[in-house]
Amino acid sequence: MKNFIVKNKCSKNRYSELVNICNKNNRALPKNWGKIETIIQLNKLPRHCYHHYCCYVLAYAHAFNFKQKIERFHKQLKYGVFWSHNPKAYEELKDYLINLKREDWLYKWPDTESSYNPKTKLNS
Fold first, then answer.
1. Tens of pLDDT along the chain (124 residues)?
2. Domain residues of the chain, as ranges?
3. CB 103, CB 25: distance < 8 Å
4. Exposed/middle/buried for 73, CB within 10 Å: 0-12, 13-18, 19+?
5. Angstrom distance (rounded) from CA 48 to CA 52
6. How high is the pLDDT of residue 94?
7. H helix or E strand, kind and range, residue 105
8. Global pTM exceeds 0.90
9. Do the beta carbons of residue 42 and residue 53 sit within 8 Å?
10. pLDDT at 7
11. Cα separation of 61 and 43, whole Å?
12. Would you call 62 helix, strand, or coil by DSSP?
């Protein structure tokens, strides 16, 4: 039982670390969100569980608001840390998120629920 508690606390810390990486500088979610699904191996889930974690919510701009998309992305991160079939999911997620460039993220406006894409070059 003690090993379970230690492992669970470690996983919570890992999840918090990933969320902090994603929230840094008003980042919301990566533009290439399909890569997350590949890393956490959602294709190995039974079909009746898949819809709880799938990326399709991120694609349907008209059906879901930006806050719901961020929540789904964080749910995917949680699945990757706690339950993924990939034993190296945490390391791969962390490596992927840390190495994304500025233009590879969608950002959220502070104090709102809307998104924006950063410009790659400033106007001169």
1. 444 444 577 888 999 999 999 999 889 889 888 898 889 988 887 777 766 777 666 666 667 788 888 888 899 999 889 888 889 999 999 999 999 999 999 888 776 666 666 666 555 5
2. 14-116
3. no
4. buried
5. 9
6. 95
7. strand 105-108
8. no
9. yes
10. 57
11. 23
12. coil
DSSP state, 27? Answer: E
Distances, alpha carbon 35 to alpha carbons 27, 80, 92, 99, in Å: 17, 12, 10, 13
Token readout for 80 is 């990757």
Query: Both tokens of residue 85?
Result: 């079939």
- Amino acid, single-letter form, for residue 106: L
Apex 32 CA angle, 115 and 19, nearest 5: 65
- Check: CB of residue 70 under 8 Å from CB of residue 57: no
